[in-house]
Every structure is written in C-alpha cells, then in structure tokens.
C-alpha cells in the first residue's frame, strides 16, 4: 500500500491513478507466490518520473476503470489485466500456472486469455504429448455424470486419468479410484491411468498405449 500512496499524489497536490500490477498483483490475487524484490506499480501518467527505491513503475498507455479494482484495501489491476501484463514479464510456465490458479479461484480472466483447461504440469505435459503425436484433441477436465475426468475422447468413449502421487496415494484414494473406474465403465468408457513417471519418463510407451486404445475404439 505504501508504494501506491507514494505515487498517487503529485507534488502539486494533484491525484494520479496508480495500482499494484504485474507480478505484485499476481501475488495479491494469489495467482503466483510472492517474492522479494521491487513492488510492481502501474502508473498511466507522465508524473512521478523520479525513481523510488523498492518500486518498479510500469507506464501503460491507458488503464481503463474496468481494469482496476480494490483488494484488501489496495488498488490493484483486475485479474484479467494482471494476466495480460504477465504475458510479457514472466516465463511461460509461470503464466500457465497463474491462468490455472485464476480459473481454480473462479476469477474472471477475460475472453482474450486462452486456457487449455489443464490444472497441473502433469496434465499440461500429457496434453502436449497428445498434440505432438497428432492425436485428436481430448476434452480436458470434462464432466461425465457427477464426475470430472482429466481427459476424454468422447467419440471413442476413452478416458485418461493422469495420477499425481500426492492426490492418489493411500488406501482411500485407491478405493475411490476403483469406484470411479466402475462408474465410468457403466457409462461405456474405457479408462486408462497414467502416472507422473510414465508421462514424463516414458512418453514413447504412453503414445503407443494411446495409439492402440484410440485405434481400437474408432
């Protein structure tokens, strides 16, 4: 908040629009973890040119009122504007993480933000593997009855569940997975489970499994 206050008032007493933005806004929205370093503030004004310690000033041509809001009493760019700003300032995997987190939190990301609907790096890697192998794109995190499956080829009635260790370890998780499989099969779906190790370390085997399964269910 101190960074915003330092920039919103001019030396002549005039008021300027300043808002937390970029990586700092992403941390406030809980899209990316916070980290040490300068605070990112967007200031669409010619004033406030003096450098200020601990503040990184961004000079957008325009900040529309709809792109600004208040969170925890701090002026901040909206989630959609924050994600747009991140495109040019963070690595690709960080941007994907921020988009996934925004969707998980139910934030409005705007129609210009393209999402592949994946929720983890494991799901993202599997989808990339499918595209490199030129398989038809599966539906991602699709509802089947009361369940949500990771990947589904609807016409072939084929489902792939990518199982990260943390979410699928333990006896209860094992029992829950078996119950889900039975319900999916009752809907006519074949189910294939793939582990983190298989997707990341055995991509050729995964492709061969998919080729056989999809080819057999054309």
Helix and strand element order? HEHEEEEHHHEEEHHEHH
Largest pleated sheet = 4 strands, mixed
Q: Could you estimate the helical fraction of the residues in percent?
A: 40-55%
The radius of gyration over CA amounts to: 23 Å
What structural category do the secondary elements indicate?
A: alpha/beta
- The count of β-strands is 9
Strand order of the largest sheet: 6-7-8-9
Shape verdict:
elongated
End-to-end separation: 58 Å
Average per-residue pLDDT, rounded, comes to: 83
Percentage of β-strand residues: 15-25%
Which regions contain 5 or more consecutive residues with pLDDT less than 50? 10-15
Draw up the topology in text.
Elements: H1 2-8, E1 19-20, H2 22-28, E2 39-42, E3 55-58, E4 68-71, E5 74-77, H3 79-86, H4 92-105, H5 121-132, E6 139-144, E7 147-153, E8 158-163, H6 165-168, H7 171-186, E9 190-195, H8 196-201, H9 203-216
Parallel strand pairs: 2-3, 8-9
Antiparallel strand pairs: 1-2, 4-5, 6-7, 7-8
């Amino acid at each position: 908040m101190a960074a915003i206050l330092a920039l919103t008032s001019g030396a002549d007493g005039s008021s300027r629009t300043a808002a937390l933005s970029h990586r700092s806004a992403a941390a406030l929205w809980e899209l990316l973890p916070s980290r040490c370093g300068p605070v990112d503030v967007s200031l669409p004004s010619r004033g406030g040119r003096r450098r200020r310690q601990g503040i990184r000033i961004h000079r957008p041509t325009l900040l529309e009122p709809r792109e600004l809001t208040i969170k925890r009493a701090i002026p901040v760019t909206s989630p959609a504007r924050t994600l747009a700003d991140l495109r040019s300032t963070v690595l690709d995997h960080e941007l994907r993480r921020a988009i996934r987190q925004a969707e998980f939190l139910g934030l409005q990301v705007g129609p210009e933000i393209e999402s592949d609907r994946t929720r983890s790096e494991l799901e993202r890697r599997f989808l990339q593997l499918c595209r490199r192998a030129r398989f038809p794109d599966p539906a991602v995190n699709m509802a089947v009855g009361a369940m949500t499956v990771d990947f589904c080829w609807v016409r072939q009635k084929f489902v792939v569940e990518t199982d990260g260790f943390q979410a699928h370890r333990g006896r209860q998780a094992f029992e829950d997975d078996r119950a889900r499989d039975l319900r999916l099969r009752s809907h006519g779906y074949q189910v294939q489970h793939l582990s983190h190790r298989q997707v990341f370390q055995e991509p050729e085997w995964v492709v061969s499994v998919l080729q056989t399964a999809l080819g057999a269910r054309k």
